[in-house]
Each structure stands twice: as C-alpha cells, then as structure tokens.
Amino acid sequence: ESTEGGRLMGLDTGKVCIFGAGGPVGAAAQHALEDHYVLRLTDIRMVDEILEAGEPQSKGAPMPTRPESPHEWRRVDVGNYEEVLSAAEGMDALINVSVLRHDLVPAFHVNTIGAYNVMKAAVACGIRKVIHTGPRHTRLGFEGDYWGDFRVPDEAPLHPGSDLYALTKCLGGEIVQTFAEHYDLEVITFLYCSFLPADGGNSADGSGVHPLAIAWEDTGEPFFHALRADRMPNNYEVFDILADLPHGKFGTHKATRLLGWKPKHSFDRLLR
Description:
The protein has about 270 residues and is an alpha/beta fold. It contains 9 helices and 11 strands. It has helices at about 25-35, 45-55, 80-90, 105-125, 165-180, 215-220, 220-230, 255-260, 270; strands at about 5, 5-10, 15-20, 40-45, 70-75, 95, 130-135, 185-190, 195, 215, 235-240. The strands form 3 sheets. A 7-stranded parallel sheet has the order 5-4-3-6-7-8-11, sandwiched between helices. Strands 1-2 form a two-stranded antiparallel ribbon. It has a two-stranded parallel ribbon with strand order 9-10. Helix 1 (about 25-35) packs across helix 7, helix 3 (about 80-90) crosses helix 4 (about 105-125) and helix 4 (about 105-125) packs parallel to helix 5 (about 165-180).
C-alpha cells in the first residue's frame, strides 16, 4: 500500500479482514482473495459450526472453507466494538459483508452498529481502505423504490422505506459515508439485490431474470478489483454489482470504468 498526493494507491498484497465471512458473499470474497492476500476471516460462528450445519443460504450459494495458514478464522460479533477492534489490528484493509435481515434488535445491532464499529476500528488502526456491502432494494411495494425507472445510476440514493433490512443497512451506509468523508478514507460500497448460479439453477429457459442479478460465480471477483483500485474520484464510491443484462434499469459501466471489473456470466439461457 502506498500513497500519492495523499490518496491511496491499490493494495496488491497485504492483510485483509473480512467481517461476516460465514455468509455466501463473504465466502465468495474468501475464494477470490485467498491466493493474493493474507485473510483474517471472522463471523459470529466458527467455520466448523457453519460447515457442520451444511446449509447454504440458497441453492448454489457458496460456502466458506476452513482456512489454512497463513489465513485464520476468528469468532467476532460485529456489534461488539472491542472484538471488531481486535480483529482489525494489523490489517491493511477491512471488508464488511455482515448482515442480519429480519429480527429488529439484532438487525440494528449488526447492520447499523456493526458498520459503525468497523469504521471506528478502521480509524483507530490507521486503515484507510474499506469495502462495505449492502442491498439495493428495488421493489418495496413502490414505497419510493426505483422499480419503474430505467438507467438508474449507481449513485442513486437508497430508498429503504420502512423495510427493516433495507432501513438498517441504509443507516449503516450513511455512517460509513460520514466516516469516509470526515477521516479521508477510501471506501467502496457494493450494492447487490439478486443472486443466482451462473447456469440459472432450476429456472426454466426463457423465464427471465431480475434486472439487478449477479451470478454467485461473479460475486467474489469485484472485491479483488476493489482492493487493487486506486484514486477513486470520491472518498465514498458506490457500485451496483450485477450481470450485463438487457433491461436497461441498472448497469455495469461504473464498475468497468473505475474498477476494471466485468461480469463473466449474463444468464443467456434465462433471457432467450
């Protein structure tokens, strides 16, 4: 990691901590990064507990693997600042993919307070490169969402309405942006909505696909590109992560232009 004119250059090697590594997005990030960085993988559960349960989030969703040295796994509650701070110590970058969706207090604990704890720990440890993740809820009963719109830019404000998951993650994102701008950090946020296996899974030929869908097989690689990216135009940059799709609602242009990432899978079987 180096700087040029006070701005971070890309991180080609180093130590990266992933919060929420037990989930499928965390597992995808692990698989994309483990040959290039030393990973400290953390989750509320130990990896053996997750693997013994053997329950992927959905059909085709990736599962974490037991890390081998020099990688490690730690039990960390992202809502506990001391645990987050300990996990962040000695790291060159932090990735937060932790999420809890449906229970009021735990969702706020993980999605909002957890985001605050990760950013506070980044500042305390002198870590300037952070990747944050969250959802772009595209259909919330038309409660201020973008379902009827086209050419929606990555920077379009999130409209969480009263949905617990959307609202607590949106609050977390606001906190992350405030930290990024106040402390001159380099923060990249990835927004997702719909995940499918690259082959479309059990969906029938021509049955269609969500306009902000991404293949599980493409989900991890953006993290690799984001860690190596340098000199983002702003301290806080948001990217919609999706396949190249014909709907015209959301796009991959910004991710290609600033991160150099293009998805490999486009669900042709479901669209033809």
